[in-house]
Amino acid sequence: MKRILALLPVAALAGFSLSGCGAAGCSSSPATIGTPSGATCSVAAGSTITFNVTICSKCTDTSPGCQAEFLTDHIELQPTVQQCTDQSGCSTQGCSTNPTVACNVSNIPANAVGYPIQIVGDTTVQATLTFAGTGSSCTL
Question: pLDDT of 39-84, one tens digit each?
Fold first, then answer.
């Protein structure tokens, strides 16, 4: 997954137009994570889960998205944003908004007890998933 994210800026530089930025070029970047480390989530086992990850959006960020993957020993969520050159003159200090990004993960085994979650953005944040709940989504 990290290789895909690494190739997106190359595609943008090669002249591919990505949506959300107007005529100026954009590149995909890891989002700044706004989720606190140690967050927990409880859902029903065996379902597709939507993790709503809070990010710190700067004025240069548009089109938030997420790559999500269920691995054998943890769940990895990688929120991304498009950073646009036509917005590069704005102040990037602090967050201008704190939106959530939906990260969908399927193939969770029905007999699962719990998994660590790694939210990988500009930093890595740890969270925990347990299967004591009844829902199929949570906000981290």
Answer: 888 888 777 889 999 888 877 778 889 999 988 889 999 999 887 7
Instruction: Report the b/e string of 78-101 with b at 16+ CB within 10 A.
Output: bbbbbbbeebeeeeeeebeeebbb
Candidates 82, 83, 81, 66; CA nearest to 118 is 66
What CA–CA distances, in Å, run from 74 to 7, 93, 119?
24, 33, 11
Residues 109, 110, 112, 114: is their CA dihedral positive or negative? Answer: positive
Count the neighbouring beta carbons within 10 Å of the beta carbon of residue 40. Answer: 12
In angstroms, the CA 84 to CA 42 distance is 36
